[in-house]
């Protein structure tokens, strides 16, 4: 097992990894920008190294600075966390070339599954159903029009690399598609340095269902059930729950088994997530996330498995000691992403937190690295906390989440807590009938 792990990330996920390491008796090194010098992960780390100024490209994306920090501190392994370099194949290769262990999948899996076209092709080979669309990337609007004519409108133009809703445009007609194609390519180039896009059929009322899998380097693989991530705004997840209120036990067993078989066929190891659209009882693969997910805590709570500790053990070449038959899913979990943003305009709200009081009590977990007098920097993602609640039933879980949100006190900045309070009172959430388009209509005032 590793003696010292360098955490190449910040905020709540850096603190989450530190906690796992602490329980395993592993020392931690945290790298940070100058904007995060006074952050909780830096305070809690055994060692910390400043790797650059606030801008991500000069700090958290600075591969050479991170590797230098690992060298001077004598780290054995590097955990990339979520975002930044977590799915960067070149970084994973550099980590291994410099004699450290990358806590994640192989660089080859990062490369293949990080490109939506090659990922789609790999899943077709593995027997996973995919959304109808182009076989590869499209070089012109004329090619896109030809594919759209075959599969029918509406269609979705998507960047082959990246995520978070960037480089994604819906087109309901040929005229709209020409414009959407150019816009998606421009966004893809600007955000990911890769202008390639492809085309998929746009589903009218799908759910976003993802399967959490965990594999080791000895051919073993299990799944930890599904998460329903359909409550999204501009393709960004807002609230997640497990299990999904839409799936039957038969659906759950089918898609979980399918994901595990696919992971085994491609030889995948570490934590990973297969993401699907589900409509009219059918699953369609859309992408695989080859890292820890922001919403991983809901899977931990219903399965009793610490995913971060398992990631570390797998990276250390240990075999999984958990078999699928050992996992018994219990209860229900909901995660509310707490962002530093206005709850109605959604404008970012960086600044100093003057008062901070997190909720507590039975079944309440808060993953956060903020505190009173902490200044939320303007340079990074607006996520400042994750409120995760657990209860025996979904109805009890919703009630507990509402109670916890009422307790959550954050002053000095705006947060989206009021949005979550509205969501948990909305009929579409209470009865579980929402789909991936529901939240956009809700915040626009056209959906109850």
Structure description:
By secondary structure, the chain is an alpha+beta fold. It folds into 3 domains: 4-103, Rossmann fold (3-Layer(aba) Sandwich); 132-201, 2-Layer Sandwich (Dna Ligase, domain 1), CATH 3.30.1490; 207-443, 2-Layer Sandwich (D-amino Acid Aminotransferase, Chain A, domain 1), CATH 3.30.470. The protein is built from 15 helices and 20 strands. The chain has helices spanning 11-24, 40-44, 63-73, 89-97, 107-114, 116-125, 141-151, 174-192, 249-266, 296-303, 307-315, 394-407, 417-423, 427-430, 438-443; strands at residues 4-7, 27-33, 47-52, 77-79, 101-102, 155-159, 168-171, 197-201, 207-215, 221-233, 236-242, 270-279, 282-289, 332-339, 351-352, 355-357, 364-368, 375-376, 383-391, 409-411. The strands form 5 sheets. Strands 13-12-9-10-11-14-19-17 form an 8-stranded antiparallel β-sheet. A 5-stranded parallel β-sheet has the order 3-2-1-4-5, sandwiched between helices. The longest helix has 19 residues, at 174-192. The radius of gyration is 21 Å and the shape is globular. The mean pLDDT is 95.
């Amino acid at each position: 097992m590793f003696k010292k792990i360098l955490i190449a990330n910040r905020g709540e996920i850096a603190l989450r990894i530190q906690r796992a390491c602490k329980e395993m008796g592993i020392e931690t090194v945290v790298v940070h920008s100058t904007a995060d010098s006074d952050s909780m992960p830096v305070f809690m780390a055994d060692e910390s190294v400043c790797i650059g100024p606030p801008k991500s490209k000069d700090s958290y994306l600075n591969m050479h600075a991170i590797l230098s920090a690992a060298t001077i501190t004598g780290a054995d392994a590097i955990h990339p966390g979520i975002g930044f370099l977590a799915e960067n194949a070149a970084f994973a290769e550099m980590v291994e070339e410099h004699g450290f262990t990358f806590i994640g999948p192989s660089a080859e899996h990062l490369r293949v599954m990080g490109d939506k076209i090659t990922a789609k092709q790999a899943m077709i080979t593995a027997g996973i159903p995919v959304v109808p669309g182009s076989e590869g990337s499209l070089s012109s609007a004329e090619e896109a029009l030809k594919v759209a004519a075959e599969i029918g409108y509406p269609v979705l133009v998507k960047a082959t690399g990246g995520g978070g809703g960037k480089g994604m445009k819906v087109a309901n007609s040929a005229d709209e598609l020409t414009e959407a194609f150019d816009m998606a390519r421009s966004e893809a180039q600007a955000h990911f340095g890769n202008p390639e896009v492809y085309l998929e059929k746009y589903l009218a009322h799908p759910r976003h269902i993802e399967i959490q899998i965990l594999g080791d380097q000895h051919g073993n693989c299990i799944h930890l059930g599904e998460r329903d991530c359909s409550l999204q705004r501009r393709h960004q997840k807002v609230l997640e729950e497990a299990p999904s209120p839409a799936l039957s036990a038969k659906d759950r067993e089918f898609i979980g088994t399918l994901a595990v078989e696919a992971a085994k066929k491609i030889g995948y190891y570490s934590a990973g997530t297969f993401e699907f659209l589900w409509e009219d009882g059918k699953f369609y693969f859309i992408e695989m996330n080859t890292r820890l997910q922001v919403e991983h805590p809901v899977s931990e709570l219903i399965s009793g498995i610490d995913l971060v500790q398992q990631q570390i053990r797998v990276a250390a070449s240990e075999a999984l000691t958990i078999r699928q038959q050992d996992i018994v899913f219990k209860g229900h979990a909901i995660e509310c992403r707490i962002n530093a943003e206005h709850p109605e305009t959604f404008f970012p709200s960086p600044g100093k937190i003057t008062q901070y009081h997190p909720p507590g009590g039975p079944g309440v977990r808060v993953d956060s690295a903020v505190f009173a007098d902490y200044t939320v920097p303007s340079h990074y993602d607006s996520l400042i906390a994750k409120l995760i609640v657990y209860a025996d039933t979904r109805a009890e879980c919703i009630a507990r989440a509402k109670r916890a949100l009422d307790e959550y006190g954050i002053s000095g900045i705006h947060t989206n807590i009021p949005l979550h309070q509205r969501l948990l009172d909305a009929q579409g959430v209470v009865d579980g009938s929402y789909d991936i388009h529901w939240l956009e209509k809700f915040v626009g005032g056209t959906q109850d």
